Amino acid sequence: VEKKLILEEKITVLQQQNEELRARIEQNTVKTRQLSEENANLQEHVEKEVKEKKRLSRTNEELLWKLQGGDVTSPVKSPSAPSTPFYRCSSGNSSPAKVRTVRR
Known about the structure:
Blueprint: H1 2-70, E1 86-89, E2 99-102
Keywords: Coiled coil
GO molecular function: microtubule binding
Protein name: MTUS2 protein
C-alpha cells in the first residue's frame, strides 16, 4: 500500500512535468513560427534593398557615362567649359566613397 502511494505520487509529479514540457513545446513552436515569419519578412526586405541598390548603381553608371561624354546631348561636352570637373568612380565601383573629381 505504501509503495503504491509513492508510485502514485511519482506518477502525479511526472504528469505535471509532462504538462509543463508540453506547454514549453507549444510556446517554442509559436516562437519558432513568429521568428520564421520575421525572417521571411527580413529576407524580402533585403532582396528589395539589393534590387534598389543595383538600380541606383545602374543609374549612377549611366549618369557617369553621360558626364564622361557618352551622351551627345550632355551639357558637359560643351567646348565652352573644357575644365569642367566631372566625377569618375575608381576601380569601377559606384560607391560614393570611391568617387573622385577629374579635370578634363
